[in-house]
Amino acid sequence: MIRIDWKKLPSFALAGVLMGTASLVAVPHGAALAQPAVSRGLPDFTELVEQVGPSVVNIRTSEKVSARTNTNGMDEDMLEFFRRFGVPIPNMPRQQRPQRPQPDEEQPRGVGSGFILTADGYVMTNAHVVEGADEVIVTLTDKREFKAKLVGADKRTDVAVVKIDATGLPAVKVGDVSRLKVGEWVMAIGSPFGLESTVTAGIVSAKQRDTGDYLPFIQTDVAINPGNSGGPLINMRGEVVGINSQIYSRSGGFMGISFAIPMDEAIRVSEQLRATGRVTRGRIGVQIGQVSKDVAESIGLGKASGALVTGVEAGSPADKAGLEAGDIITRFDGKVIDKLADLPRLVGNTKPGTKSTVTVFRRGSAKDLGITIAEIEGDKPASKLAEREEKPKASPAAQLLGLSVSGLTDAQKKELKIRGGVVVNVAADAAARAGLREGDIILSIANIEITGVKDFEAALAKLDKNKPVNVLYRRGEWAQYALIRPSK
C-alpha cells in the first residue's frame, strides 16, 4: 500500500490526485485551478405548450363558388342552348353528361392559425389568411367550432382581427418586444399543412429586419410552413411577442428563415381595427430615397443616415411646410431617422391632424420645419415635362462632366413647381456613368442651388476638377443625388 504525505505533495500533484488523472499536470504554485465549463441543456418547452396551447386556434376559410360553370369551362346558358336544340357539345366526351346547375356552394379556401387576444372572443391572425373569404371558421383546442365575424384587416401590416361569440376564453399574454434579444429561444404553435396544434422552436435570428415600409420584422429560424400563418411567436416566459407571417423560401416550404410581425406593432393595428374596423395612417407627401455614404460625405452630412427627399407632392403637407427635393430628413418629432424605413413608420404611426416637426439637412445646415400630418392616400401619377428651349453648346467645364444643359422657361418652372434649375440636354461620359440622362433637371451642384444656366456655369467654375461633385437632379416628379467623377 502506498502512503501519500499530503503536506509534502506539490500542488500540481495534489491536483492530479484529486481529479483522479493518470498523469500529473503541472500547475504553477499559487495559480487557481480552471473551473469546468457549465453545461447548458436545451430548454424544455412542455410547460409553455400547456400554458399557451389552449389560446392558439385553427382558422379555416371558405368562399362561395358559382356552379354556373361546369368542369368543361362552359357557361350554363350556353349548355342550355345545346340541350334544347340537340346540338353536340364541343370538346366534351359523349359519356360525360352536363349536369344541371347547382346553387352556389361553399368551397374550402385555405387553412391558417390565430390566437385568442381577449377572453370575450377577439382573435388575431394574418390579413392574408382571411382575405377574400366568405366564411371563417375558428376551431379551439377543445374542438369547439365557431363561425367568426371579420372585424377588420390591414394589408399593409398583414394583421387581421376576427370575433367569435364566446366568453371566458384563455387569452394570451402579450410580451414586451423591446426585451426580446437576438439568440433568445422562441416557440411557435400553429397548423402547418392543416396539422393542428403543431409546436416548433428555434431562436431569434435578427430584429428590426426591413422587408416593408411599416414593419420591422422579427427574423427567426423557427420552422414555419403554410398554415402556420397567423399563429403566435412565444418567448420563454409564455408571452406572445409576434405573429408568424412570412418565410423566405425558394421551394414553398421552410428553408430556415421566418419572419414575425412584432406584437407591439400588431397591437397598435388591432386597437384601430376593433375601434373603427380600419387603420388610418399619417402621410406628409414625399418620395424618399436612400442616402449613400459618398453622397453623405460630399454634402457635409457625414454619416450615411436619414431619408433623402426625392420628390414633394404638390399641395401636400410637405409642400406647405416648405420641404424641397434634395432635403435629407434627419429627425421626425425629435426621433432620429437612422435608416430610410424609419420615416414611413414614424409618420404612418402619427395620427392625421397632428402638428409635428421635421428636421432637414439642406445645403450644409439643419433646419426645423413645422408640418401637419395628413391621412395616407394613393400616389399621384407623375407629370410630363413640357417642351424645352433650344439646346445651346456645352461649356468646357460642363463638357468635363459630360453635360450639356439649357434653361427652363417660366411656364416649365410653374408646371414642375420649382424655382429654378437647368435641364440636361446631353449626359455622356462622367455624367452618364453617374446615372444622369437627357431630360433630367439639375437643381443643385456641390450644395449650390441652381436657378439657371448662369448659376450652373458659375458653380462649375468653382469646382476642383480633380474631385467628385454631388449633383441633385430631378427625374419626373422625384429627385435624387448623383456623384459625378470628372473625366481625366
From TrEMBL:
Location (main, coarse): periplasm
Keyword Signal among UniProt keywords: yes
Species annotation: Acidovorax carolinensis
Tagged with keyword Repeat: yes
Residues of the active site: 128, 158, 229
Gene Ontology CC: one annotated term: periplasmic space
Binding site for substrate: 128, 158, 227-229
Assigned EC number: 3.4.21.107
Sorted UniProt keywords: Hydrolase, Periplasm, Protease, Repeat, Serine protease, Signal, Stress response
UniProt xrefs under PROSITE patterns: PDZ (PS50106)
Region listing for Disordered, in residue ranges: 89-111
Similarity field: Belongs to the peptidase S1C family.
UniProt name for this protein: Probable periplasmic serine endoprotease DegP-like
GO molecular function, one term: serine-type endopeptidase activity
